[in-house]
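Appendix C: a fully annotated inverse folding record. The material below is reproduced so that readers can follow the format used throughout the book. The structure is listed first as tokens, followed by the designed sequence.
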């Protein structure tokens, strides 16, 4: 009843105010006192009870991602209402906790549940790899910081030990989780994939902010500010922030920060690895790009040079398709110069850049699917239905791309170390006249 009270109250107010404004035939003239009073009551009710994070589609989107990617052998963490919704919409009937556990409480063999709660701070406790870096953007369209001009946001990261951005600051993940218990792996993943929202970094559509909010296309999330955690109220994000979201009046000094898809500032998720000067990086670019122009890679190159003073050296020739849509390779090797101003610097890194492509060596059923779907493997996001043939086509292309990096022609075996693997790829993929093959730089590379 409490959940239903909001829509019922708003519906009654709209009808009441409409009648007082003279919109109903036969009613007396408008009474602005009633109108102002009704509006004030609506605002007061919203300020006290409404959390704008809960009225957007974020929760639904988050739960669907958890069901797909956070399956584990254990009791189902879905609530009864969530299970009922799944069954109503024809979802998998994997049962509840009682059906998945025996009398002793142990999980029955073969039982697979959905893990909704997995705190980020718990992921780093064992101290083993991998250390997760979940990339998002903090939208700051109203910031006066000149470094954000044209970007409308800053790189915001979630990790097991800390969260934050260079401009907004950083805070311990466990501390943020105490302030906002909703923050966990599922929430961070949903935010990182919040592709459609009222504010989207450099991709923001200012003229459509109001319409997107009106139709509740708001996959972003309001997170307590990492620099003002002591001032955050416990009852959630109020309607004042919804107004700021619609008008774009969001900046880094607010008590809550608007977070959305990391692709709204850098779509490869490699920027934070370059900031950490990683020696070996594997980057998979799954963005739809029929001509393989590498626009996301070039944006990363620009950010790395402007912000970090890092240069990327590469050529996209082997990835670009011919008139028949066939490319020479699935991947290229990018040389990372962490200190480009120093000619003989030992600060060198390597990045394998993988891009979905067709070389003509894929299984015949994949080529047949391409014959009937000319945009494969760069189909757009509007079609979210993946039947078996389509899913297998993308899986097979990914497998072929990965296997190509271990082919005998590359002189690489699967038993080699990561360092040896990258250096062998460098000797086979880079041109012979590259300066890295000079005697001095070759010795430096061996020390990497």
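Designed amino acids, in order:
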């Amino acid at each position: 009843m409490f959940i239903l009270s909001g829509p019922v109250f708003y519906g009654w107010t709209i009808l009441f105010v409409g009648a007082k404004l003279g919109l109903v035939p036969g009613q007396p003239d408008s009474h602005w006192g009633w109108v102002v009073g009704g509006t004030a009551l609506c605002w007061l009710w919203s300020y006290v009870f409404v959390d704008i994070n809960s009225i957007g589609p974020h929760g639904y989107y988050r739960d669907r991602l958890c069901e797909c990617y956070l399956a584990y052998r254990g009791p189902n963490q879905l609530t009864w209402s969530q299970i009922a919704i799944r069954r109503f919409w024809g979802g998998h009937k994997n049962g509840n906790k009682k059906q998945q556990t025996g009398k002793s409480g142990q999980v029955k063999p073969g039982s697979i549940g959905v893990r909704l709660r997995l705190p980020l701070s718990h992921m780093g406790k064992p101290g083993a790899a991998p250390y997760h870096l979940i990339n998002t953007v903090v939208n700051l369209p109203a910031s006066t910081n000149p470094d954000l001009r044209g970007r409308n946001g800053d790189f915001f990261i979630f990790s097991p030990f800390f969260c934050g951005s260079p401009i907004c600051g950083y805070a311990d993940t466990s501390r943020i989780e105490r302030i906002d218990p909703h923050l966990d792996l599922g929430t961070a993943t949903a935010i990182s994939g919040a592709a459609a929202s009222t504010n989207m970094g450099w991709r923001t559509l200012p003229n459509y902010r109001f319409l997107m909010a009106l139709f509740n296309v708001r996959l972003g999330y309001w997170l307590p500010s990492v620099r003002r955690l002591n001032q955050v109220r416990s009852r959630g994000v109020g309607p004042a922030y919804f107004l700021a979201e619609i008008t774009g009046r969001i900046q880094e000094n607010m008590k809550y920060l608007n977070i959305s898809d990391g692709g709204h500032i850098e779509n490869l998720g490699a920027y934070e690895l370059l900031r950490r000067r990683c020696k070996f990086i594997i980057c998979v670019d799954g963005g739809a790009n029929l001509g393989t122009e590498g626009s996301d890679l070039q944006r990363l190159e620009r950010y790395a040079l402007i912000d970090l003073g890092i240069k990327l050296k590469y050529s996209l020739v082997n990835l670009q398709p011919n008139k028949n849509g066939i490319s020479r390779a699935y991947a290229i090797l990018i040389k990372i110069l962490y200190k480009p101003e120093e000619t003989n610097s030992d600060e060198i890194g390597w990045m394998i850049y993988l891009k979905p492509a067709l070389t003509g060596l894929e299984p015949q059923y994949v080529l047949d699917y391409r014959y009937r779907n000319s945009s494969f493997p760069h189909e757009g996001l509007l079609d979210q239905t993946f039947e078996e043939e389509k899913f297998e086509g993308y899986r097979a292309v990914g497998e072929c791309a990965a296997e190509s990096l271990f082919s005998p022609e590359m002189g690489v075996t699967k038993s080699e170390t990561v360092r040896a693997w990258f250096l062998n790829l460098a000797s086979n993929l880079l041109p012979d006249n590259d300066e890295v093959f000079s005697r001095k730089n070759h010795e430096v590379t061996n020390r990497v």
